[in-house]
Specification:
2 copies of one chain form a homodimer. By secondary structure, chain A is α/β, with parallel strands linked by helices. Chain A is 42% helix and 18% strand. Chain A is built from 9 helices and 7 strands. Chain A has a 7-stranded parallel sheet with strand order 3-2-4-1-5-6-7, with helices on both faces. In chain A, helix 1 packs parallel to helix 4. Chain A starts with a helix and ends with a helix. At the A-B interface, helix 1 and helix 5 of A face helix 1 and helix 5 of B.
């Protein structure tokens, strides 16, 4: 019983900060997306390419969540975009309170979209709202086509699924990944999910993702 | 404060079962390894190949941990090895109590090594002892060479690091993965970690891993 009660209290405290974040972002007229995936699916590379390709079109800032190291924030800052690093020191997801602090440090007035790159974990971050406009789940083709079936929660909750590293399919190195299975399983969990197969490395498929982002700005 | 106390209580309850599991395994003279990785690093494929290649040499049973579906247990059973499925229904790691129940269902007398395939998650499972003889961390080359630096806990605690999918390096599809960086970073965290670069798909490097397993049996 104690476990259940305390778990609920923690979630409520988190939701209180999530609401604050949501109000802060709405007040400033900013869009915010919470990017979630396994370690190594390519979240940072996707962000670096998106920021570079959209330079001059969309002003992007990033909140970086990592268990250790600021390797990812350094990679973002190399694009000249502002990046605030949160080091969780072992915690398996970002909390809304951590994001609330990071939002104070970003130059919000100069930004249009804030990406939160969550800790690499396909499970825990899906349970914690951060005040975002939507979740974006990233799946690398190298992880296999059974992941929506095996880790359904995040696919059920996300606005967008980016299927990354499709260059590995083109290279013929991976012949046992069935993109149609991923689409079918993801849409069974979430009828309205937008799915973009992309390669952050070669740029293939990225235009459709950029168009979706631009559409989000038009809706603000 | 409440959070810390309750967390500690849960860990102690877990450790109680971990001790029971450890005693049960020692009593039967069995070896047990807890396999941990991100989703999609190839744990199940590694186990399927290991079981098949060692058929007649080592009798292996598997405890499968998944959030949803028994896809992985079905793959193991297709090799004729016994597999007990634990579905965690959202929980991000296996508990020692779950493993305790599963151990009762395995035909222990007919087995020499029990592999526990944990939930796909590079973070949470590292904090929960299951009564195993050692942890085995699996890293796919597609996940990138920065993972020991970014997710240090599991690399610090594991007996073995299997660097999987090295066929992707040979195919020239991945040119930005530095195996030496992985080795250096993992050994900085854990001087005694054994590192085997392997491809469960092509079989490359698997012999060294099998020799290590045989050596573990000799030590029981």
């Amino acid at each position: 019983m104690a476990k259940v009660n305390v778990g609920k209290k923690i979630l409520n405290a988190n939701d209180t900060y999530a609401l604050k974040n949501s109000e802060l972002l709405a007040h400033h007229g900013k869009r915010c997306f919470n990017m979630i995936s396994s370690p190594g699916s390519g979240k940072t590379t996707l962000l670096v390419r998106t920021i570079s390709d959209l330079a001059g079109a969309i002003k992007i800032g990033v909140i970086e969540g990592d268990i250790q190291t600021d390797i990812d924030a350094q990679r973002i800052r190399a694009t000249n975009a502002p990046a605030i690093q949160i080091i969780t020191e072992g915690a398996c997801h970002l909390s809304a309170a951590q994001v609330h602090q990071a939002l104070q440090k970003l130059p919000l007035d100069n930004l249009e979209i804030i990406f939160i790159e969550n800790v690499g974990n396909l499970v825990c971050p899906s349970a914690f709202e951060l005040g975002e406009d939507g979740k974006i789940v990233v799946l690398s083709v190298a992880e296999g086509d059974d992941k929506p079936a095996k880790y359904p929660a995040i696919f059920a909750k996300s606005k967008v699924l980016l299927v990354n590293k499709i260059d590995l399919l083109a290279a013929g190195a991976l012949i046992d990944f069935d993109l149609e299975r991923v689409k079918t399983d993801a849409r069974r969990l979430n009828k309205s999910i937008e799915i973009f197969p992309v390669s952050a490395k070669t740029g293939e498929g990225m235009i459709a993702w950029y168009d979706w982002l631009k559409g989000q700005l038009a809706r603000k």
